[in-house]
Amino acid sequence: MSMPTFERPMPVKTPTTAPFWDALAEHRVVIQYSPSLQSYVFYPRVRAPRTFADDLEWREISGMGTLYSYTVARRPVGPHFADAVPHLLAIVEWDEGPRFSTELVDVEPENIEIGMRVKPVFCDYPEHDVTMLRYAPADR
């Protein structure tokens, strides 16, 4: 008996998130900046957090960051990820401030360290018309 194959869930672009996904398709990272907060914000939203100002602007960032936290999932987080173990789930703190939930690639679990520099890796899924943002050690 063979195991059923599952297609991984993919993000759905909305009018609010479209600039983020469109930039990733071009292998660029753009996030929102709030002049009222004088800081970058992430996740995409309609109004600035805390001030509720309607002043959010899309700005390109380097995408470079520091590994803030991670976990090594040795059991699939769901049937869609059965082929992805160990699954390296991570939170990257961008140089510009916000944190981003992602996956680590091109690294063995034993070589992962909190505080390590990481660089963006753009993973294209043309069949879904989406590009996912992953991270790899910056020294590679």
List keywords for this structure.
140 residues, mainly beta, 2 domains, 5-stranded antiparallel beta sheet, 3-stranded antiparallel beta sheet, 6% helix, globular
What is the number of strand segments? 8
SSE string, helix = H, strand = E? HEEEEEEEE
> Which percent band covers the strand fraction?
35-45%
Shape: globular
Instruction: Give the strand order, joined by hyphens, for the main sheet.
Output: 6-5-4-7-8
Major sheet summary line:
5 strands, antiparallel
Helix content: under 10%
Structural class: mainly beta
Q: And the CATH topology of the largest domain?
A: OB fold (Dihydrolipoamide Acetyltransferase, E2P)
How far is the first residue's CA from the last residue's CA? Answer: 41 Å
Calculate Rg over CA atoms.
Answer: 16 Å
CATH hierarchy: architecture of the largest domain? Beta Barrel
Structure description:
- This protein has 140 residues and is mainly β.
- The protein has two domains: 14-61, no CATH class; 63-140, OB fold (Dihydrolipoamide Acetyltransferase, E2P) (Beta Barrel).
- Helices cover 6% and strands 38% of the residues.
- The strands form two sheets. Strands 6-5-4-7-8 form a five-stranded antiparallel sheet, with helices on one face. The protein has a three-stranded antiparallel sheet with strand order 2-1-3.
- It is globular.
- The mean pLDDT is 93.
